[in-house]
Amino acid sequence: MKNYDRNQFIFGHMLGHGRTGNIFKITLGKKTGALKMVALYKDENKLEELFNEIKIYIGPLKEFQGIYIPKLLKFGVLHEAFVFILTSLAEETFATMEDNITRKEKQLAIEGLQKLHLKGVMHGDIRLENIMIKRKNNNSTCVWWIDFGWCKITYNMKDLNKELNDLKYLLGMANMK
Questions:
Q1: pTM greater than 0.85
Q2: Which of its termini does the chain have fewer beta carbons within 10 Å around, N or C?
């Protein structure tokens, strides 16, 4: 993995907080996105989750970047102390917009999870905070799944269907086919 120096990054505001730590808006070169990083020497489990996320982005979900998941812009080591991923930005999570999510956007989240499942990827952390939404000026919407730290590869239909049903229940669409 490439090592980046701190002065290559322009840090913006904090976008949120996840299991691995704070997520920041940053610019690296000409790319602006969401930065998630984990200290190399502090928490082995969080580091393993971030490596798992990188493997998923560059492996089975590569073709879905920008459609069902954010684009992976960069990943590497920051100042020989942190492993990071930099992904494209969305606006908000389903959790912050809970009262303002349309039926179509909920269907897009379900469709996205189904596409992940077709690649054998079980997300493993179905929460409104892990579904991002980006509404565009032309009235179109992107719905992205984020945080693949707990995901795993499986083709066990019972587990995949349970995860899908959990999402439908969470979105209030349990009766949807």
A1: yes
A2: C
